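Honest question from a wet-lab person: if I give you the sequences of every part of a complex, can you actually get the arrangement of the whole thing, not just the pieces? Trying it with mine:
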Amino acid sequence: MSTHSIASELMSPAAARTAVDAVISDFLDDRRRDSGQRELAGAVKLLEEFMVGGKRIRPILAVLGWQAAGGKGDETTVLRVAASLEMFHAFALIHDDIMDDSDTRRGRPTVHRILAGERGDDPSERYGIGGAVLLGDLAFAWSDDLLHTAALTSAQSAAVLPILGEMRTEVMLGQYLDLRATGELTDDIDATLTVNRYKTAKYTVERPLHIGAALAGADTPVLAACTAFALPLGEAFQLRDDLLGVYGEVRQTGKSRLDDLRAGKNTTLVASALRAGSTAQRTRLRTLIGDPDLDETGAEEIRAIFEATGARSAVERMIDDRYRQALRVLDTAPFTADAVTALKHLSATATRRTS
Amino acid sequence: MSTHSIASELMSPAAARTAVDAVISDFLDDRRRDSGQRELAGAVKLLEEFMVGGKRIRPILAVLGWQAAGGKGDETTVLRVAASLEMFHAFALIHDDIMDDSDTRRGRPTVHRILAGERGDDPSERYGIGGAVLLGDLAFAWSDDLLHTAALTSAQSAAVLPILGEMRTEVMLGQYLDLRATGELTDDIDATLTVNRYKTAKYTVERPLHIGAALAGADTPVLAACTAFALPLGEAFQLRDDLLGVYGEVRQTGKSRLDDLRAGKNTTLVASALRAGSTAQRTRLRTLIGDPDLDETGAEEIRAIFEATGARSAVERMIDDRYRQALRVLDTAPFTADAVTALKHLSATATRRTS
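Yes, you can. This is the full assembly:
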């Protein structure tokens, strides 16, 4: 009796996070112990260290989606699918850092930088990139292993796998648009929001919710409500990320405040400043943003232009509008009451965070 | 009646190849028509062009494994899984070319070179690498989409997915060992054969056979016979590849004869020459192999040392030994007779090929 009543209690986001981390940790321990793959021990360690410190927002949203659609009881399957999403995310970040040539992630050097540093000889940058491509690939393969051992029923597979496939293609499309736009600054705010939608809103919020909800057998109205909630929240999440990339405290974000600016990321913040700026301000932005040698003095000049043009406050307003829109959806969404409470809390955290 | 008798005829390797290509082509056409992902049209085209001209050895082996284990009748599922393997292979090659910094593949510039060339501005190499990482990732995701839409029964999923997971981790382990060994030449022939086993023998021959056989419900003796046949044949296949990388006709192989030498690939051929060479020969090999600016004159000097040390003929003998061993396994393997005939033919082709 008591076991049953514990199992039917809804798991809190904090508990979901801990449980997902345990699944990942057990999975990596198994890999470490696999005698046929002893040579991969270094890769397992690197991946494990990389995964420390993530916010686990996607796995938490998968669990919340499952709960929102009425999922309860044995969480084994949803937690394993959630862990698979986090492992996939490790893959996406490792490759993203290669594409952006980023120096730091989660307060540590990025994987390609760590690997390049381990190799003293000449083509060390090349070795770092090659090793990081491969570690990302391994995380992708292992996210599938987690998925394929999640004991999905046939109905769950039929509901979840197409959404998962969409999610993967969408995030890669977002990355592709982002890569193409990087270094070619435009003041096209809508274009930046399209990249945002694919790269973050759908990938980080909508699809994890959908996947969890589909595991619980969600019907079309529930999935549609997930979308209506997720897209504004996800856009707000990315807009906050754009601001943190320029204004965040490095000790809190774990990311350099220069990486996005040096990489020439065409964020909504940048597009807004280009749209509102004077000719002189636009010229300075185009000179400074994308300069791989940009220093803190140059970054301060950019920040001053973001303030002077009103771009920073415009993005803050965009975040607030989207946050409120997401909350309005929750007021009428056909979700379970506990899930609505948790999603409200998460919406506030995701849009007002400092890390 | 006549439809039934056609469906129960065993499909020839050539017919399997054509059928797998049709599955891939239809899949990519669907992607092209997907209005939500119109922006990916360029990526679809690039991937489609990349996939032209492959030998399709993995999908053919999957179909042969299925036939060897008694699979017959409706080939829809095995062909779709086979197409998934080929799509996965496109991913593996695109990333392999980044890691090896190769210039050409299948007679065309490699993906990262094509993309770098499309971009005129300064960090074009970086853009080429980023885009190629992403195109490879997309092929990986799409190989899963093919797999997840192959209509596997629960029994087939339970049999096939663990093998598929092993295959993916193994090839990445092989790549990792290869990457680590590249540029650090040793005369350790066994170490080169270990890389060969993971990177090629298991990935290219054993696992595709296993996957096809598992789809047909193969028992342990059939799977064990697949392994006993596949490992020597796969090693021979890679040893032939190593020779073709240095001695092949570019018009036939589609690969530069300088790429492997410039990248400092520690092949069995190189290790054999280091093992057998004089101090002077070893010094020359260590100077020339791995030099990114190696020219045809330097390559000729290396080839002369491979001849003089007997390394080339030693590798030819290793190929022949393994080819014969694979044939001996076929004499007693519990495979269907037609599959044995086809596997014998394929063994001869794979080890004696010129492309």
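Two things worth pointing out. Chain A touches chain B at residues 37, 39-40, 43, 91, 95, 98-99, 101, 121, 123, 126-127, 129-131, 133-134, 136-138, 140-142, 144-145, 148, 154, 157, 161-162, 164-165, 168-170, 172-173, 175-177, 179, 183, 292 (CB under 8 Å). Confidence is low (pLDDT under 50) at residues 1-8 of chain A.
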